[in-house]
């Protein structure tokens, strides 16, 4: 019973540590909001900027897993390039080493409760503020406090291991087997880090074990090296349902750390002696002889490992991508996902704020299908060949069904995101996205209704006059202009949307509709064409005007996002 309680206490301590990291990371992303995403796109334009961004952002978030998932999410959404994402992930590996020094200098040098208890006291008033932005700052501080609280619980729990003779003997049995010990503890670092998905928690556990004298310097170094490989599982899990580019970015994280592990193991005896030599020159004892020097040696090991690996492999980024892509194509079930969505996926390990970016990109991809579908309408009206006519008619019906299915997929995804703890800006953005996809589907419905009108007209052998056809050509051209402007407003950043032209085109459509309607009534009174001809003619141009109303609704929703997403920036 005591063993079970000890295991649960250990898992609970690690769980609190991980929850604190998650809460701190997500809160910071919400505080930063859309501005952070725009910054990321701009600062990953080349591999050196991307490297620097990865270092800085990981140093701020203090969670390399979060930044690697960030990279995968943005590649999947088409916001950053694959090369930029790989450099970004390499930078994240370097940036996370700052956390090692924080844990070392603060987590094991004095009473940690001196940090987390005052932090909780400061954070609580912010939590209860009605202003969402202020409450997010409170969550950020609470997350930071939970990180150190988890460390404190780990530290207080492990002294009890001195009384567990069986566990001590089990650990000691793997401590002096030469390279077998190195490999055992290396795999322990890989597997345990994969299970808890945090190299920081693994490092904290390793530092506690070394402080109790349960493992020596070589074995603790093997755990740290293994944890660097194990932490790559997070990005690869996040990319499970992504496109090939995102999978390649995630796999590059593994390939990068794997090659780093190869060189480190090859030179391990010399590498560790070099670490020992370095810290001795800074006035510390050798980690081979003094247990108290092992934590500083491990911190230097992790930092130097990631920097050296980055220096060795950064210039070989294209080759790194090629190897990663090869692994993806050989091992991933590409094309087996029944979803038609290209830029969004089940948000495993992703934050809801990042999922909004993916949703916006997918919605743009969805909207891009409006114009090709509408362009089939003039062809349908003019086509004389029965075979080609039926192919166009069938194509429009298929596209309309695809629009219906895609709307349901995106709606389900947005609903899933909306159930999470979003920022105020994120919640309002989701609401407008629902309106956007509803209007996109309505555009497709209008195209389908126009095609059915043309089909009925032809079946009844009702013919338009040349004047009817000329006027409908004017309408079709204006509809195309409006749809193109709608797509432009969906493609640019929300803060860069300029809806002036879209509203002007919509006004032109209203004027044209009134002109054609008045002329139509006059033509009917003058018997220019039959009532049946006029019925189908007016039905088409009025449906086109209705289609344009849906298009302008899309632009209006995007405009509504603008002050909501940026008013506080």
Q: Could you list the spans in which at least 5 consecutive residues all have pLDDT below 50? A: 334-339, 346-350, 563-569
Number of strand elements: 0
Structural class: mainly alpha
Radius of gyration: 31 Å
SSE succession: HHHHHHHHHHHHHHHHHHHHHHHHH
Largest sheet: none
Q: Number of folding domains?
A: 2
Mean pLDDT: 80
| First and last CA, distance | 54 Å
Strand content: under 5%
So how many helices?
A: 25
- Cα shape: elongated
Description of the molecule:
The chain is mostly helical. It folds into two domains: 2-329, no CATH class; 352-566, Methane Monooxygenase Hydroxylase, Chain G, domain 1, CATH 1.20.58. Helix content is 79%, strand content 0%. It contains 25 helices and no strands. The protein is elongated. Residues 334-339, 346-350 and 563-569 have low confidence and may be disordered.
